[in-house]
Amino acid sequence: MAMHAVHKMLAAAADKTEVRPGEVITAKIDLAGINDVYLIVVRSFKEMLGEKVWDVDKVHIFLDHNAPASDLKVAEAHKAFREFAEEQGCHIDDINEGIGHNLLPERGLVRPGNIIVITDSHTPIHGAYGAFAAGLGATDMAAVLINGSTWFRVPDVINVRLDGKLQDGVMAKDAALYVLGQLGSEFGTYKVIEFSGSVVEALSMEERTVLTVMATEMGAKSTYIKPDKTTIDDIRRHTDAPFVVHETDPDFKYAEEYVFDLTNLKSQVAVPHSVENARDVDAVEGIPINQVFVGSCTGGKRYDIEVVAKALEGKKIAPNTRLVVTMATKDVLKESIEKGYYQILVDAGATINSPGCGACSGLLGGIIAAKERCVSTANRNFPGRMGGSVEAEVYLTSPLTAAATALTGKLISYNKL
Amino acid sequence: MKISGKVVVYNHDNISTDQIIPGPYGYIQDMKEMAEHALEGADRTLRQRFRTVGNIFVAGSNFGCGSSREFAVIVLKESGVQAVIVKSAARIWYRNAVNLGLPVLFCPTLPESIKEGAEVEIDLAAGTICEVATGVIHKGEAPSDFIMGMYKEGGIKPMMRKQALAKRD
Ligand code: SF4
Q: Do residue B70 and residue A363 have CB atoms under 8 angstroms apart?
């Protein structure tokens, strides 16, 4: 039977020669990540009578969602995590490091063929590197910590082919929002979404991860981008650890295929309160914006900070608008200092948080009030996402659109400045 | 597995985990206290209705989309919900429900026609729901044998405990 590369990875992880969509398998895990929202993992681990995690090298705890601790409850949770990491001897990235999803590739810990599970719905981001990566709940994760494996229903694979060439000023985020607008937020549920085509091949690894992270909003269980020279070169800059690249059989049939030509694509915005409410920024240009948030695993990476800083160089943000910048990781922060972006952002009027999820999770670092409008480079605009008020409005855009909006105080695409 | 009771109906699509339990409540360590905020981002009366109307929750499609927070299942259980009937559910939410032993049935027709407070009988293994007053039977999707196996154990925790204890003996 013709198999997709993802099916071959899953077969390898299950010690099988072949797996078929729909079949339930038990797969060995290469990396298990836990973020600071889910102390319940530790509780469930004890309730399941867990004693030692199966492999200390493969377990990573990230204090990223609510860092530094915003209140006493969080501080207590962080403390308990530190104690658990100490007791077990597993990895922990404390509040100074940044977002787990972005730290992993910086350390060469995401490689083709890996099976990765993290207690976070945006785990499919790692498919950009040719890994199989799925989000798990906390109790599920506790079982992984004990067994080193978990069950998966082998998923179907959908191909989303993005042909043509993106115009200047149009980013991977615009492409992702466009796909969401066309196909909705459910088409990938229980499935792997593969991204292919000339647009994808031309993207850097960071930009590719914008597609794969946004696939979570398309419902995807995991994602896949075929590893190529860009992938291998990027991984080799960070590690010389070995990995296997599985190839999709030429006669493999995708469960569904969607083809878009993005040559004429314009900057996109997902208006409140759903990720699938995507449209041209031009169509809703001029909406007054109270706050612009540049950050998250989706829009707070090196390149995002670079394009925003370059757009703001020598300029000031509009009065009555706030610009909150939260860099994804410590390395992004260091580079922004080295290259002068930090200075540019501060001079332009930005408020800069320490690295982490920041306002994306609605827990700290730029929460918005009821009836306020925020343009965000993150990935969700559900009611209450940015701090609990269901009356606050979140508009999702690319970093370039966010920069242009910060400069004018009104929603506008960069190409219209 | 048979479950019967009266329904609380909220036939809306794309109810996200942010609406089921908004993020900032995620650090409350007492689950009863957290459950006081169940579904707060969707409809604040729902939690009360689980006390006064019934314990079978009916909603639309893509239920539980968004974050991986398991609390979005826990707060329903803590609110007394015995089973959930939806047109469809997001993957992680569904997986969490199975792990925590909260029965979920996918049924495209029932959420459209059922009235708040109506009594139903669910046959989980068969994937059917019977409206007691009229005898109308809705055909949903029966859980796979694997998932039924998890339900029979009461979820993943009892299963793992059993394994651990067996190993010790
Ligand atoms: S940045 Fe946002 S989407 Fe990414 S892991 Fe953090 S909270 Fe989740």
A: no
Q: Report how many Cβ contacts below 8 Å link chain A to chain B.
A: 127
Tell me, yes or no, whether A277 and A148 share the same domain.
no
Name every chain B residue with its beta carbon within 8 A of the beta carbon of A76. 29
Same domain, A61 and A191: yes
Range of the domain at A154: 5-244+252-259
What is the model's pLDDT at position A387?
76
Is the distance from the beta carbon of residue A101 to the nearest atom of ligand 1 less than 6 Å?
Answer: yes
Query: How confident is the model at residue A390, as a pLDDT?
Result: 81
pLDDT in the model for residue A373: 97
A218 & A302 share domain: no
Return residues 64-123 of B near A (CB < 8 Å). 65-71, 73, 88, 90-92, 95-96, 99-100
Give the list of residues 6+ apart from residue B163 with CB closer than 8 angstroms, or none: none
Q: What is the CATH number of the domain that holds A399?
A: 3.30.499.10
A297 CB under 6 A from ligand 1?
A: yes
- pLDDT at residue B19 is higher than 70: yes
Of A38, A20, A101, residue with least CA distance to B92: A38
The nearest CA of chain B is from the CA of A311 a distance in Å of 31
* A240 contacts: CB under 8 Å, gap ≥ 6: none
pLDDT of residue A1: 86
Q: What is the pLDDT of residues A242-263, one digit of tens each?
A: 999 999 999 999 999 999 999 9
Looking at every residue in chain A, the average pLDDT score rounds to 97
**How distant is the Cα of B62 from the closest Cα of chain A, in angstroms?**
7
Q: Which of B16, B19, B99 sits opposite A140 (nearest CB)?
A: B99
Measure the CA–CA gap between A409 and A417, rounded to whole angstroms.
Answer: 12
Chosen from A26, A144, A185 to mutate, greatest number of chain B CBs within 10 A = A185
CA distance A403 to A315: 11
Residue A379 CA: nearest ligand 1 atom is: 3
A132 pLDDT higher than 90:
yes
Question: Quick check: A318 and A401 in contact, CB under 8 A?
Answer: no
Look at residue A388 and tell me whether its pLDDT is greater than 70: no
* A337 and A204 in a common domain: no
From residue A20, how far is each of A16, A247, A252, B92, B117 by CA, in Å?
11, 16, 12, 21, 42
pTM flag (> 0.90): yes
